[in-house]
Task: inverse folding
């Protein structure tokens, strides 16, 4: 986030999660592993035009109560490179997701459609 202007009126949306690209899940075992991951609080999975990602809801340790960055002048490159010209305050990132699994039940429903032999009780 930026410590001025637009960011000052935002609940620091971009400082409250991380994402991690993951290999494209294809096999049943891949989805079984993802089911374990999304069973944990704050963990979601999504797919966009760049592939599949874990979404981990976790506020940055440097995010101050005021919404300012506690290490602003030394913040990591990914934070420096993120422009607030048109950001998540303007448009939720979810708008560009092709698939989004917020929890175990959502991903399990997808698995049952994708794998016809997936046990109904799995
Ligand atoms: S989401 Fe946009 S406005 Fe909000 S803190 Fe991040 S860059 Fe600033
Ligand atoms: S280092 Fe600063 S700008 Fe980067 S995520 Fe943390 S609080 Fe936000």
Result:
């Amino acid at each position: 986030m930026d410590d001025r202007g637009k960011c000052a009126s935002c609940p620091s949306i971009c400082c409250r999660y991380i994402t991690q690209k993951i290999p494209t899940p294809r096999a049943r075992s891949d989805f079984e592993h993802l089911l374990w991951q999304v069973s944990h609080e704050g963990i979601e999975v999504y797919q966009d035009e760049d592939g599949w990602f874990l979404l981990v809801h976790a506020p940055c340790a440097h995010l101050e109560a005021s919404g300012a960055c506690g290490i602003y002048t030394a913040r990591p490159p990914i934070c420096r490179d993120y422009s607030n010209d048109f950001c998540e305050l303007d448009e939720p990132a979810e708008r560009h997701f092709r698939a989004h699994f917020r929890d175990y039940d959502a991903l399990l429903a997808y698995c049952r459609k994708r794998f016809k032999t997936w046990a109904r009780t799995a």
In short: The chain has three helices and four strands. The pocket of iron/sulfur cluster (ligand 1) is lined by residues 1-2, 6-7, 10, 12-14, 82, 84, 87-89 (CB under 6 Å). The chain has one domain: 5-114.
